[in-house]
Design brief:
By secondary structure, the chain is of the alpha/beta class. The chain is built from twelve helices and nine strands. The chain is 42% helix and 19% strand. The model has no long low-confidence stretch (mean pLDDT 98). It binds adenosine monophosphate. Adenosine monophosphate binds next to helix 2 and strand 5.
Length: 276
């Protein structure tokens, strides 16, 4: 069944209120659209775990550090709605920018200790934009559960911390990364890769796996092992590749607890991120 597309906050709230009156729990899957099987995994978890599923589709201008990236971001609402219909989504919330930001926001959510490394170091203001829009979406949807992909590990850590620090009455559910058969993590940005770039792209996950296999020799050796793999594809430009503490997202030089190996790599004009 085709889900209703709510573009107004008031209409979305009518639908969630109705669901709550019927005794249903509400699940929220925040996305920027151009939905793929990675988003599909989040939606399936929401469908399995809650009675009423809201998928939000909003390309949030506040989290883009480059205008060209914002402009080029794929916007395919019609096929996104069909995708949601196939997965039993109840409502797609797809507000226009003016509905989310009727005036420029004067209030922001910042999680500086978790946002200063990795992507935060290279994308100024990105996580402030993410945290702010996710806080707004949580206030609009008021979900019991919200679903986020482990593919965006730093984003997930920041949202989890924001929820704890600001007492949002909901549970964040992390969902494992969905990959192509060759290992490339699914991403809405993959559709921008040229055939040659697409051929090269799995090098990122290969490098991360190599690092993981080398981790017993320490973070420095693991990092170097990954960089060696990436050096095999000279057209892949490494923005960062770090072994970080899974809680703080800060690089470590010794393994004392759970770590993530995270990287950002440019192929032509497309930036890919991944982690293990
Ligand atoms: P995006 O539309 O790229 O902002 O992503 C929306 C949500 O989908 C985020 O929580 C992402 O982490 C998640 N997501 C994106 N790609 C994947 C993937 N390949 N596997 C699992 N989750 C993903």
């Amino acid at each position: 069944m085709t889900p209703e597309v709510a573009t107004a906050i008031a209409r979305l709230r009518e639908r969630t209120a109705e669901a709550r009156r019927a005794g249903k729990t509400v699940g929220c899957v925040p996305t920027m659209g151009a939905l793929h099987a990675g988003h599909g995994a989040l939606i399936d978890c929401a469908r399995a775990g809650t009675g009423f599923v809201v998928v939000t589709v909003f390309v949030n201008p506040l989290q883009f550090d480059r205008r060209d990236d914002y402009d080029a971001y794929a916007r395919v609402l019609e096929s996104d709605v069909a995708f949601c219909g196939e997965r039993g989504v109840d409502v797609v919330f797809a507000p226009p920018v003016e509905e989310m930001y009727p005036q420029p926001s004067a209030t922001f959510v910042d999680v500086p200790p978790l946002a200063e490394c990795l992507c935060g170091k290279f994308r100024t203001g990105h996580f402030r934009g993410v945290a702010t829009v996710v806080a707004k979406l949580f206030h609009i949807v008021e979900p019991d559960f919200a679903y986020f992909g482990e593919k965006d590990a730093q984003q997930l850590a920041i949202v989890e911390r924001m929820v704890r620090d600001l007492n949002f009455p909901l549970t964040i559910v992390p969902v494992p990364t969905v990959r192509e058969p060759d290992g490339l993590a699914l991403s809405s940005r993959n559709r921008r890769l040229t055939p040659e770039e697409r051929r090269i792209a799995p090098v990122l996950y290969r490098a991360l796996r190599q690092a993981r296999a080398t981790l017993t020799d320490g973070p420095g050796a693991a990092r170097q092992a990954a960089l060696d793999v990436l050096a095999g594809e000279p057209s892949a430009r490494v923005e960062y590749l770090e072994v970080v503490d899974a809680g703080s997202m800060h690089p470590v030089d010794r393994i004392q607890g759970p770590v993530k190996i995270a990287a950002a790599v440019w192929l032509g004009n497309t930036r890919l991120i991944d982690n293990v």
